[in-house]
Amino acid sequence: MRQRSSPALRFVIAFLALSLGAACDSGGSVSGVLVEYRTNQPIGGARVEITARGWGFSDGQLVWDKAYMHTSRTANDGTFVVDVPGPPFLTGPGGTLAVTAANHQKLNGVRVSAGDNLLLQTMPHAPRGTGAAGGIARIGLTTGQKPFGWIFVENRVTLNADEADLFPLAVSHGREGSVTLAAHVDGGLRFVSRSEQEIATPSYGMFLRYLNDAPTEGYRSTITLETKQEGGTLFVRTQDRRYAKLAWEPPGAIMLGGGRIPGTDEQAGIALTFPFVFNPLPTTTLAWDPTAGAGVVKPEFAGAAAELRLDEAPWLGARTYRLTVTDEQGVTVDQAEIRLSPSSPVSARGSGPAGYRYEEITLTYGEDFLPRLRLSIHSPAAVYHTADIMPNRRFAVSREFHDWDADNNYKAMRRRLHVIER
């Protein structure tokens, strides 16, 4: 027998239905002006939208995260007014604002409430191919209180202070938390706060968004950042005289725990995760569009690019490389050393027990003046052709491939080729 709902429940459902039917009514409005960050020139014709989430009906079901949206456009003088979706008792007092303007970076993640009057700043899109790649730098203390820092060119954690571009000298967690950071002996640190940058309204990625060029002066060997201070952008001059910028966003920048530290067997006791942008080329340019998906730093490219110098012509001559092949346990099974001139392929035979032949080993240079290597590895049972490899002198660049054991029904064996410039 079907159970009838109580009169009180029916009243609640009816009240919600009436309320949700009027949910498009406004909970007030938000006004403001949209300008270019560097010039303060108004931007007209941009789409401004506010999204709020709350109770509502979706596909006939009552849900708690239904999206409500109101939109508007900026006038020629950059001004706008847009209603906040409501009613507030269903969605709360405000929502999240986003702005889309032609040829400019999209603004998003702007928290708003009814009655706000905002100054919104955006930047033109960086010309294609000029944006710098980024990532997340991890810095802190292990559970055993060992400090770990970051190497930008390799995009990885290090426990060795001597090789780190950025290394913690002291870290404390809590309401009065702080971190004291040291640069490499050949590098430096400079902090530029939100107020110094004159960022008017918080938005997603704001501490990486607005300053496109690293300062050339004012760097220090150490710096202390506190969770009670305002956020800003930390610029790093690396040991290779390259530049990076990191977002310092207190109070949640310092975390307890953090799991296993990538690339090590250690666990993080206190961890800082810095969103960053890094340019391995010899320039101070650090353009970044937070909504364009600029990609992550690729150590293979960064390692090769970090050897370019502004004060001398790029080296486009012959180079010497060591090729090493290891098995699944990391044991060397073959190696060879070769000398290459550009676009003059050579062949070589390895000296290890695997007895590989390396055929058509070719060195070329791209328009970026960076070297690229390509070769084929021949075993008694298989041939592996590599795509372009960009070697450097700092660390080996690796490629995984499969060989086959002809005496064991062609069972696949994982191998790894390592290439480093000598």
Task: Give structural notes.
This protein is mainly beta. Helix content is 8%, strand content 46%. The protein has five helices and 26 strands. It has helices spanning 7-21, 88-91, 194-197, 206-209, 299-305; strands spanning 26-36, 47-58, 61-73, 79-85, 94-100, 107-113, 117-122, 133-142, 147-151, 156-158, 166-172, 178-183, 188-193, 222-226, 232-237, 243-248, 254-256, 268-279, 319-326, 332-340, 346-349, 357-365, 371-378, 383-385, 397-405, 411-421. Strands 8, 9, 10, 13, 15, 16, 17 and 18 form an eight-stranded antiparallel sheet that branches. The chain has a four-stranded antiparallel sheet with strand order 3-2-5-6. It has a four-stranded antiparallel sheet with strand order 20-19-26-25, with no helix packed on it. The longest helix has 15 residues, at 7-21. Residues 1-15 and 20-24 have low confidence and may be disordered.
The unreliable regions are 1-15, 20-24
The gross shape turns out to be elongated
Helical proportion, percent range: under 10%
Helices, by number, come to: 5
Summing up helix and strand content along with how strands pair, one would put the structural category as mainly beta
Tell me which oligomeric state these chains represent.
single chain
Overall mean confidence score, pLDDT: 89
Strand content: over 45%
